[in-house]
Amino acid sequence: MITLLETLLERSDGAYIEPQDLDQVDQTLQSWGDRRITYQLIQEKEEKIVDETLRRFQTENEVLLRSAPETVLKKCKGDLISVLRNCATAMLLQDEELLKDRFLYWMQNIMRALKNQKYNNEVYRIIQEVIQAELPAPYAQLMLPYLQVTHQYLSE
Amino acid sequence: MTLSPVPGNYFTPRTYIQCQPETGLLKTRHGNRLLAVPEVLLRSIHKALREETGEATPFALYTFGFWWGGAFYDRLKTEIEAYYQRTIPQMNALEFLVMMRQIWETHGFGHLNLDFTHRDLGLIKVQVEASMMQLGTEIGLKPEQTPSYHLEAGFIAAWFSRWAGKGIRACAVDLPKDAATLMANPPQFANFLVGLGPKIEQTEMWVKQGLSSAEIIEKFAVTDA
After folding, report:
1. Which one of A80, B151, B183, B202 is separated from B136 by 20 to 30 angstroms, measured CA to CA?
2. Closest B-chain CA to A44
3. Dist CA B38 CA A12 (whole Å)
4. What is the pLDDT of residues A120-141, one digit of tens each?
5. Superfamily, domain B40-224
6. pLDDT tens digit string along B27-56?
């Protein structure tokens, strides 16, 4: 929304905002109520979502984790909290660009340096399933696109 | 429910640099003032220094860069420690290096690549792409001369000196042969070798003799063995 509004301001300089651009703002605002609820739910369930994701990551990836350094799980937990909070904010504001600029490019740099992509590939696949299990479907759907883009960035 | 905040990417340009158009001031999110250096000023500094100090220009630029880099590190140290609630030595080295790359990009110092392959020899290779500190370095050069990026070398040396708490020097390597080569094919990158003072003084002599970074590293490998 922030990127959208910034673009609109720039485009409408010295003129009126185009009707189709206003429609886009209408659409964006329509889902605000649901987004607000989703945001609240994620905030309340943060610990549960993180713990459940890590638990499944551990049980489903015994082989992968056997050769992993001990610190991986602790690091994953910290990162999961960051990801969840950044994605929730991006979901609330409907701003994927903001998520990339403020968080994903930087996080991707760290992940590449640590060579953590193969763990992330699992962790951020699982968290999408956990979100779907923890949140009612319409709310989970709002959050998924941001987790998908995170999955893509942090696992490549 | 209150959750403790998790520190993120403090230096993202989207929030780090804040401008107040009504006063024309730039500030960091910590509130420190920032100065935008226009290209014309940077070129003028090179031109004026060249005219005033002649042969001593590289030395003057290096010293200038060293002071600049030192002051820069000290300012950022305060901001980093306030935000991350940790001292820099307590930080994970890898996260610090990723942060350093972000700092370079946000401030217009270009894309930084650090190569630690030769750490056994006490050398770090630093490659900088598209740095504003490389602007104007070709001004006032004689045809047989080539820019030596002393401003940037001083800056990098000060940063690493402060970080390591040791007397670190930096020296540009793999430079274009002469001004004509430079003009015909402007380089995208500048490469530096970074290490302890005496080692880099030796490097500077070898660079003057026309040795490439690969040859210099080879020489060190032989003498250190």
Report:
1. B202
2. B1
3. 29
4. 999 999 999 999 999 999 999 9
5. Trafficking protein particle complex subunit 3 (3.30.1380.20)
6. 999 888 999 889 999 899 888 988 998 889
